[in-house]
């Protein structure tokens, strides 16, 4: 018959009322329900020793086996809990990193925009202007703007630096007069606006 664990903290009163003895274990108070439970059996010679004996009375073998096993179980449980907590922390960190890099550029602060208005002023001799728009030397847009009207081109940028420099170049087809290049600095979260005046003239 095995002894049962009654309480982890204070020894319960019911044991005294029943005239039974208690033994303090790492996981609580153990009620001694059998005379055999008072003895500690030596793992070497099998001699049954007193309850609180440290060494076997016959062969002097240390009687710490049960306590060692209890301590080992406790350490193993703590290691398992710590390992599980570390795994959960790594998993949460990986999820946060994935969500961060999955956000659109305008939400993670690396987004900027440039709005270019190409205006063909009204005049007596104004003609439709056919143009080619380049940004930093790369073709971006082309079109034709009638006299007195305008064309709007919007370009979104994503970048890793604190700002981005963009060179706006407009080539007017069949015209001897060309607009000057415009240099624009774009910062994260901002929208920069530029107006370029077009004029078609022949020499």
Report on this model:
This protein has 203 residues and is α+β, with helices and mostly antiparallel strands. The chain folds into 2 domains: 4-100, no CATH class; 111-197, Immunoglobulin-like (Sandwich). It contains 2 helices and 12 strands. Strand 2 and strand 3 form a beta hairpin. It is rod-shaped. The N and C termini lie far apart (116 Å). Mean pLDDT is 76; it is low at 1-11 and 14-20.
Can you give me a brief rundown of this structure?
This protein has about 200 residues and is of the alpha+beta class. It is built from two helices and twelve strands, in the order βαββββαβββββββ. The chain has two domains: about 100 residues, no CATH class; about 90 residues, Immunoglobulin-like.
User: Structural class of the helices, strands and pairings?
Assistant: alpha+beta
- Largest beta-sheet characterization: 4 strands, antiparallel
Q: What's the assembly state of these chains?
A: single chain
N-C termini distance: 116 Å
User: Average pLDDT across residues?
Assistant: 76
Percent of residues in β-strands:
35-45%
Order of helices and strands: EHEEEEHEEEEEEE
Q: Within the largest sheet, what's the order of strands?
A: 8-7-10-11
Question: Which term fits the overall shape?
Answer: rod-shaped
Query: Runs with pLDDT <50, length 5+?
Result: 1-11, 14-20
Rg, please?
43 Å
Query: Helix count, per DSSP?
Result: 2
Q: Using DSSP, what is the number of strands?
A: 12
Helix content: 10-25%
Structural domains: how many: 2
């Amino acid at each position: 018959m095995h002894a049962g664990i009654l309480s982890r903290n204070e020894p319960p009163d019911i044991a005294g009322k029943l005239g039974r003895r208690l033994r303090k274990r790492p996981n609580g108070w153990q009620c001694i329900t059998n005379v055999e439970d008072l003895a500690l059996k030596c793992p070497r010679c099998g001699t049954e020793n007193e309850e609180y004996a440290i060494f076997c009375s016959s062969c002097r073998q240390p009687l710490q086996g049960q306590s060692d096993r209890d301590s080992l179980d406790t350490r193993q449980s703590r290691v398992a809990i710590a390992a599980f907590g570390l795994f959960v922390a790594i998993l949460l960190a990986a999820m946060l990193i994935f969500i961060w890099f999955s956000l659109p550029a305008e939400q993670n602060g690396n987004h900027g925009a440039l709005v270019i208005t190409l205006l063909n002023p009204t005049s007596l001799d104004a003609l439709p202007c056919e143009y080619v728009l380049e940004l930093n030397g790369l073709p971006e847009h082309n079109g034709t703007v009638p006299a007195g009207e305008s064309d709007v081109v919007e370009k979104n940028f994503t970048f890793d630096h604190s700002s981005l420099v963009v060179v706006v170049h407009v080539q007017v087809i069949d015209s001897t007069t060309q607009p000057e290049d415009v240099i624009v600095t774009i910062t994260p979260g901002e929208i920069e606006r530029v107006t370029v005046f077009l004029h078609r003239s022949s020499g």
